[in-house]
Automatic annotation (TrEMBL), chains A, B:
Gene Ontology BP term (one): regulation of DNA-templated transcription
Cited SMART domains: HTH_CRP
PROSITE patterns membership: HTH_CRP_2
Protein name: Crp/Fnr family transcriptional regulator
Amino acid sequence: MKSVSNVAAFRPAIASVSQRSQFDIVIRKLRSFDHVADEDVSVLASAVSGTRSFDTCASIVTPGKTPPHISALLEGWAGRYKILRNGARQITALYLPGDFIDLHSFLPTKTDDGVIAFSGCKTAQVSHESLQQITETEPRLTRLLWRSTLAAAATHREWLTIMGQMSAGAGTAHLICELYTRLKAVRLADNHRFCCPITQLTLADTLGLSTVHLNRSIQALRAKNLIQWHRDKVTITDWDQLVDWGEFDPTYLQMNEPVG
Amino acid sequence: MKSVSNVAAFRPAIASVSQRSQFDIVIRKLRSFDHVADEDVSVLASAVSGTRSFDTCASIVTPGKTPPHISALLEGWAGRYKILRNGARQITALYLPGDFIDLHSFLPTKTDDGVIAFSGCKTAQVSHESLQQITETEPRLTRLLWRSTLAAAATHREWLTIMGQMSAGAGTAHLICELYTRLKAVRLADNHRFCCPITQLTLADTLGLSTVHLNRSIQALRAKNLIQWHRDKVTITDWDQLVDWGEFDPTYLQMNEPVG
DNA sequence: CGGAGTATTGAGTGACATCAACGCGCGTGG
DNA sequence: CCACGCGCGTTGATGTCACTCAATACTCCG
């Protein structure tokens, strides 16, 4: 666990034009699931009360504390994690731009896990009250938001399969396919290339591997000419084989458009 | 994968008195999360269109097929699973009496996993249309159902932590604690004893272990005098130590009452 | 130019998997 | 009632994937 300097910049409560256009990424994400009515877009966008910025390694949600609002990620990568007594850390979710981070927190749920920024991040906030109101008056939008939490749960199940049954190499391939597919859905990746701002340590904690072994798994993928990985630039040089090796089937991501 | 003889017994669509009392277990489960209004109980119970019975090893949801209705488990244990090319099976969820099995299926989600009965099971059905209607007119009940899917997601994250970071023995201890706690919440367990109708093979596929190693993990727990396990009867002889060894914190189960 | 963080490599160890055999309880059929 | 077979639990021997420890490179940054 790194230091936790939370550089939060509160904005005025009235959604500005620029704020709204930043929020587009969230709409793009929701549209990747299904058609979204313009009216629902308006309702959701106007529910945003402000944005916050986080430095790398800043704590977005502190373990054990229920945040006073729900957040959607506008920029950067973040992740949910849990720490065990021996210091081991498991990343249980990776949040990419457009993802809701803790949509579940508006229901009086308790969690003992935290959310950390893996790169510089910006989030948009919606108050619990606003979301509660949406569930009262906007059933269609409510179903859409519910659905986005269900897609997250399906991703959890896929990761369970990776960790329980797949080899380190296959799991790594699978995760790379997932990240590319999710980024592409919000137009942050294309041509089998994407920017991966997180370290191998983070990826290792996600896959339940040691950094050493993850590194060797990545190198095995390189040796097979399936990927290139230089600093934070990842290029998938053989998508079909990577998909095959990782047994990646994007069905669980619930997207309505094909991948390529 | 065993044979799949689906002995389904359809009942008339009008909920009978006995059917309604069977459905009580689902209400008990929902009440374990939060207070449930009597009106919501009525609405939900009247949405039940019938029950079905399944033999051990019967397929409750066939992989790849979207079921025409959603199901809640009234009796028996079931589980969601995914099979890989090499035949490896990962159990991604264990369903106990009172749990909704595929509450997510009413939203047009696709899944390539299946649900299988681990013991004789009975389910109650609610049509997608009824559930859709509930989301239109019953926001409070909708939030409650949403919440139950969020608790399932939190359980997935806990299992990710088990599989990624915990030893086989600690993970086994954790799962035993979880099962007892969940069963106790619906009054199917007490006094640190419960009936576990599933085989070690199933538990091993849940924890991502081989049967041999799971068996040795269980025996280690026995040797420490933490549990007794004879046929399908499990007795936790030292709850505090089992909780400690498995680092079990029931927070993620979202229950509003203490455990003991 | 030094230092911190990250990536990479090597060597040794350990946890868990695999393979194989045996016991045990239970249901079934003779 | 017993013989048989099947599913499941248990045990031992052996193999291997991934972890740990440790050291070295690379890159960025001050």
